[in-house]
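To the wet lab folks,

You asked to see what we're planning to order before we commit. Fair enough. Below is the target structure as tokens, and below that is the sequence we designed to fit it. If anything looks off to you, flag it before the synthesis order goes out.
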């Protein structure tokens, strides 16, 4: 006998995608997560397409992955999807040392971040 499988963590109308170790600080990545949170996915994709932030391309790829997961793995309608959650977490921090004046050195921290995007299908009201 095998042990029973774990129940699905998300609801039936949700799908998610995760991007690990993105080379950006969590604070800067959270600015883009706030930009797309709660929007319809087509609007969020357009906002990310024309954003001037360097990491916007990676966020857009993660959102597209969440949309593809919703469509292919869970059979959700792409036109009814919204970005339900977009949250950022800390990952590792590379530490480097740089030479400074008078024989000293200082630490340079190069942070990484994780991004999780959850999309949800909402029913659009029928137009009569």
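Sequence we intend to order:
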């Amino acid at each position: 006998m095998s042990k029973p499988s774990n129940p699905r963590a998300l609801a039936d109308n949700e799908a998610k995608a995760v991007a690990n170790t993105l080379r950006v600080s969590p604070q800067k990545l959270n600015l883009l997560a706030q930009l797309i949170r709660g929007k319809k996915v087509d609007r969020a994709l357009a906002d990310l397409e024309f954003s001037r932030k360097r990491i916007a391309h990676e966020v857009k790829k993660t959102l597209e992955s969440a949309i593809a997961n919703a469509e292919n793995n869970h059979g959700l309608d792409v036109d009814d999807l919204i970005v339900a959650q977009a949250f950022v977490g800390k990952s590792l921090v590379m530490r480097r040392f740089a030479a400074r004046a008078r024989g000293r050195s200082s630490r340079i921290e190069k942070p990484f971040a994780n991004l999780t995007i959850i999309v949800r299908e909402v029913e659009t009201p029928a137009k009569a």
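Structural context that might help your review: The first strand starts at residue 14 and ends at 22. The chain has a mean pLDDT of 95.

Thanks,
Computational group
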